[in-house]
Design goal:
The chain is α+β, with helices and mostly antiparallel strands. It contains 14 helices and 50 strands. The chain has four domains: 41 residues; 197 residues, Sandwich (Jelly Rolls), CATH 2.60.120; 291 residues, Kelch-type beta propeller (Neuraminidase); 182 residues, no CATH class. Strands 2, 3, 5, 6, 7, 8, 12, 15 and 16 form a nine-stranded antiparallel β-sheet that branches. β6 and β7 form a beta hairpin. The termini are far apart. The N terminus is likely disordered. It comes from Chitinophaga varians. This is Galactose oxidase. Keywords: Membrane, Transmembrane, Transmembrane helix.
Length: 833
């Protein structure tokens, strides 16, 4: 019975729907607001509960803001706020913290639905919060005591409670209970429009700027489309979520996290038709291979240069073969393919460390010659699955070629093939895109199928079992032009942002290739995984399930008694079937931290640099390399236009000859690149004789980039700005004559924005005013208004001695600096208190 009910709940959790909130880096009027009570408040008596499912969208810089605000007819409020500095949720009642605070681990917060329930009791004057079935806090005598509630999630447009700070969150299934009775249920299961209807009473919730999630789960989104020169190859660096597209004159890098494509020009060369591309995670380099002629070209992805060009006259005889990099033996395997009127079942192996090619002699079950199959492999690289394809028993194209639907296991260690099953032949024949994604937790795969008997085809995502010959179609198809020697498709998954990416290629007649990239919100663990419901299933459903459970239990009991009577005194131990090898190449057993390990550069406070693993590598920067880096980075900020070699020479090597300065610059640039390579992706190139340096996010995060984004948001995100500035003044302890103008500009921006906030918010919380003033005093230690506001805040907090001491220190430093006495007395300075 328990299992059956769990299945019902889990089945519902697998549905992809909800409301995403537009929140950061956009105008306030474009942010999402969900008002459950737009027309009239909801009435509650005695005890009530508000329950909803929540997750956060990954890869945002800031998550500060209001999840919801509940207000009553007495203008009292309960707020749920996320604090990005402490990474915790706080329940606020009125103008005070209630004492209820809780955190949700990043795996759950970013990749799963988390059920949060607020339980209020107006009679007992208590407020409790439960997260995923566990109570996290209870407060006595909460502020709200009214019975007419208005509830708003995200941005709030009500006059007395207006706020536009909200986290980039996702919600679904909001329920309101009166006692134990379900009073309202807004599922947030829409595809368009600006309303959602309560399933219980039909009451309509109003949504401003909605981002409905169901279309994102079911309809592929076109992320990019562009044309490259020559023949293209596709490969992915799973560690950084970067998809590489090779071409004749450039290397294109598409970030699955930012959905941006960057092209890096290279020395022009001609790529042969049918080349293979693969990324080697061991040496972090990109390879192009031709199995026919055993050619290999290696690209240093940090410097974006190839060590050689492949012979363009060689056209492959292994079209649409499957390949993968095996971590087991650090080799690239190429399996099957088609060319010269023959389908192949050969296995080729290339070992980069030895620059060695070999054809692997295979044993085990017969592997039918084929191409257009899908392949997925496990993280260890010792096992791969090959699904379907098109070929013939003999390999001869003239002898009964046909579609194949078998699943075959390739054992790298033992060099064997093993047949697992054969799918039932479908009414509409199909082949497969070159790779598939494996999910070991559920023993299932995800692959792309397409009709290979027409040019105007489409890619259909399917989910299938690695144990049983069953599969199910998912989402809408993606348009796909198929002509076997001119087209290709690859499927990728990035668990960090719960997204599938499809890259398709089609070679045009003018020696160019059309590249199209589509994405789909997808979460086999994430948004399909949910903690147990904190409310029971509907009563009628429980009764049905209990009845079914009782019948099944009685039936099983009868079977068990019969089996017990028949059982022999000594029963042979059952033979377990051979286990399916664990496969986790794309989807990890547990979803990783949302942002993963990101390298970073911190310029507020003391200069600090961390590498991709989070290690502090600041000491690797000598004083000269530090200044060289800052010259390049700061002069490449928006509006600066870069820095010339002559300007670098004047700062770092004044008086040296042009030749000596050039040699010193070249040597130190190489040293600097060796350090920066440890941080992640960046570009350093010349544009109109000026050096331009940029980090690529989210691989490398810098507080200065974050700072400028916060400036664009204005005072709407002042809390995040103060959290950043609290670390200290810009490049504290670093002094160069050329740096003064940068420091002055940033100090001016800080004082203007923070000062404006203090003027416009005279009733701001004193503790927060102290933080704002401290940030202003980092920029200007004698800023008069900052000192006066800080003194007033200290007085408001009853710290009179601290306020007097602060003002006395200010008067002393003022006289020492300016040689004059500051005329405003302490009593006058705090007069507004």
């Amino acid at each position: 019975m328990i299992i059956l009910i769990s299945l019902v709940v889990a089945g519902k959790a697998q549905e992809g729907y909800g409301l995403a909130f537009a929140s950061k880096n956009i105008a306030q009027e474009d942010r999402t607001s969900l008002d459950l009570t737009p027309e009239k408040p909801v009435q509650v008596k005695g005890s009530y509960s508000l329950s909803f499912d929540l997750s956060f969208q990954p890869f945002f810089r800031s998550y500060f803001g209001y999840v919801f605000r509940i207000t009553d007819e007495k203008r009292q409020n309960i707020d749920l706020i996320y604090n990005v500095r402490t990474k915790a949720f706080y329940v606020v009642t009125g103008n005070s913290f209630s004492g209820i605070t809780f955190s949700i681990g990043p795996d759950s917060l970013f990749h799963q639905w988390n059920t949060i329930r607020l339980d209020g009791n107006n009679e007992a004057h208590t407020l409790a919060v439960t997260v995923n079935g566990k109570q996290v806090g209870i407060a006595r005598s909460p502020v709200i005591s009214g019975s007419m509630l208005r509830i708003c999630f995200g941005a709030n447009y009500r006059k007395a409670f207006r706020t536009f700070d909200l986290p980039p969150m996702r919600l679904k299934d909001i329920r309101l209970f009166a006692g134990n009775r379900l009073q309202h249920h807004w599922p947030l299961d829409q595809t368009d429009g600006f309303t959602d209807k309560d399933l219980v009473t039909g009451q309509t919730a109003q949504v401003k700027n909605p981002v409905w999630m169901r279309p994102a789960f079911t309809t592929w989104h076109k992320a990019d489309s562009f044309i490259v020169k020559g023949n293209a190859g596709i490969a992915m660096d799973a560690a950084t979520g970067t998809i590489y597209i090779t071409s004749n004159d450039s290397l294109y890098r598409y970030s699955c996290y930012t959905h941006q494509t960057v092209a890096q020009a290279q020395v022009p060369h001609i790529s042969p038709q049918g080349l293979h591309a693969v990324f080697n995670p061991a040496d972090k380099q990109l390879y192009q291979l031709m199995a026919d002629s055993q050619q290999v070209a290696v690209c240093d992805t940090g410097r974006h240069t190839w060590d050689k060009a492949l012979n363009p006259q060689n056209v492959t005889s292994y079209w649409h073969s499957n390949l993968f990099f095996s971590a087991y033996d650090s080799s690239v395997y190429i399996i099957g393919g088609y060319g010269d009127f023959r389908y192949k079942n050969e296995v080729h192996r290339y070992t980069p460390s030895r620059h060695q090619w070999e054809q692997v002699a295979m044993t085990g079950d017969t592997f039918t010659p084929r191409y257009l199959a899908a392949l997925g492999h496990n993280e260890a690289g010792d096992t791969a699955y090959i699904l379907g394809g098109y070929g013939s028993t003999t390999g001869d194209q003239l002898l009964n070629p046909h579609n194949l639907y078998d699943l075959v296991l390739f054992d790298v260690k033992r060099r064997t093939f093993r047949s697992i099953y054969r799918l039932k032949e479908p009414e509409e024949q199909f082949a497969f895109a070159g790779n598939m994604i494996l999910n070991t937790a559920q023993q299932e795969y995800y692959a792309l199928t397409f009709a290979n008997d027409r040019m105007n085809s489409s890619l259909q995502l399917i989910r299938g079992s690695l144990k049983e010959p069953v599969y199910t179609a998912m989402a809408t198809p993606v348009p796909f032009d198929f002509y076997d020697i001119r087209s290709a498709a690859r499927l990728f998954y990035t668990p960090e942002n719960d997204e599938l990416t499809v890259v398709t290629l089609f070679s045009l007649k003018n020696n160019t290739t059309q590249v199209r990239i589509h994405t789909l919100l997808f979460s086999p663990y994430g948004l399909g995984a949910q903690a147990p419901a904190d409310r029971p299933a509907p009563l009628y459903l429980v009764r049905i399930m209990i009845a079914i459970g009782v019948v099944i239990a009685l039936f099983l009991l009868a079977l068990g008694i019969a089996a017990l009577n028949r059982r022999k005194a000594t029963a042979p131990a059952p033979v377990a079937p051979p286990p399916v090898t664990a496969t986790t190449i794309i989807i990890p057993a547990a979803a990783p931290v949302a942002a993963g390990h990101h390298s970073g550069v911190l310029l507020f406070g003391h200069f600090t640099v961390t590498d991709k693993d989070g290690n502090d590598i600041t000491r690797a920067f000598s004083p000269l390399l530090k200044e060289l880096f800052l010259l390049l980075y700061l002069h490449s900020l928006p509006g600066r236009g870069g820095i010339s070699s002559e300007e670098i020479n004047e700062v770092l090597w004044p008086g040296r000859s042009v030749k000596d300065a050039k040699n010193n610059r070249s040597v130190n640039l190489v040293k600097l690149k060796n350090i920066l390579d440890k941080t992640g992706a960046y570009t350093l190139a010349k544009d109109n004789e000026r050096w331009i340096f940029r980090f690529e996010e989210p691989a490398v995060q810098t507080d200065l980039d974050h700072y400028y984004q916060l400036l664009q948001e204005g005072s709407g995100n002042i809390s995040a700005l103060t959290a950043l500035l609290k670390r200290g003044p810009f490049l504290q302890g670093t002094e160069y004559p050329w740096l003064d103008k940068f420091k002055a500009d940033i100090a001016s921006h800080n004082i203007e924005l923070l000062g404006h906030f203090l003027e416009e918010n005279p009733d701001a919380a004193p503790a927060f005013v102290l933080e704002v003033c401290d940030c202003m005093l980092h920029a200007d230690s004698l800023h008069e208004e900052a000192v006066r506001h800080k003194c007033r805040a200290l007085v408001a907090l009853r710290q009179h001695a601290a306020a007097r001491h602060l003002y006395a220190s200010f008067l002393k430093e003022y006289k020492s600096t300016y040689g004059a006495t500051y005329e405003v007395e302490y009593a006058e300075a705090i007069a507004h208190c």
